[in-house]
UniProtKB/TrEMBL annotation:
Entry protein name: DUF1080 domain-containing protein
Source organism: Paenibacillus oceani
Domain 3-keto-alpha-glucoside-1,2-lyase/3-keto-2-hydroxy-glucal hydratase: 13-201
Pfam families the UniProt entry points to: 3keto-disac_hyd
SUPFAM superfamilies: Concanavalin A-like lectins/glucanases
GO molecular function: hydrolase activity
Coiled coil: none
Length: 204
């Protein structure tokens, strides 16, 4: 747990969380709500905020596991370029308790939040561990949930602030084609209890 295999080390993976400390991470507010327990990075979820990597990354494969309480809403942020404005300068893979949801929308678990709905409902019930893979390579973003590729998007298609390529609205005040492609990895505290483990990343 929270360790690399010999093959992963040879490939160039690095651990983002060592299983015992918050070394390499910072917290935007309420740092007491982020702690290490039983080898997991735990968010008690009493308010709102983020834990984020001090390092920044551009092209990479990020892998992690998470387990949330019933009703928990969270997210994995990436390419988050302006720490003072995560909402507009961070892409987010949505984490939410949407196991029973039938129609996938742009805030279902696995979505590229407010940009692309997941292709299928791949999330597991609350209380079970889920596996996430986020791949960023140039303008291409791929999101995999529990072994299923649920989103593949080309950021170069987002040419207008506040608009998706299909003409629907989104929350962003910038066009993603023009946004920086290097940024922090962030974990969201959105008022729900959630645990993370096995956070690892390889740069491409």
């Amino acid at each position: 747990m929270n360790a690399l295999t010999e093959q992963e080390r040879q490939q160039g993976y690095r651990l983002l969380f060592d299983g015992s400390t918050l070394g390499g991470w910072a917290v935007t507010r309420q740092p007491e709500e982020w702690l290490v327990r039983d080898g997991n990075l735990v968010c008690t979820g009493d308010s709102h905020g983020y834990a984020y990597t001090e390092d920044q990354f551009e092209n990479f494969i990020l892998e992690l596991e998470y387990k949330g309480a019933p009703g928990t809403n969270s997210g994995v942020f990436f390419r988050w370029s302006d720490l003072s404005d995560p909402v507009n300068t961070g892409l987010e893979m949505q984490i939410w308790d949407t196991f029973h949801q039938e129609e996938m929308v742009k805030n279902s678990s696995g979505a590229l939040y407010d940009l692309v709905a997941p292709s299928v409902n791949a999330v597991r019930p609350a209380g079970e561990w889920n596996q996430i893979v986020v791949k960023c390579d140039g303008s291409i973003v791929e999101l995999t949930l529990n072994g299923t590729l649920v989103v593949k998007a080309d950021l170069d298609q987002w040419t207008v602030a506040g608009k998706n390529p299909d003409g629907t609205d989104n929350k962003f005040k910038y066009a993603w084609r023009d946004q920086p492609r290097r940024g922090h990895i962030g974990l969201q505290n959105h008022g729900g209890y959630i645990e993370f483990r096995n956070l690892k990343l390889i740069e491409l």
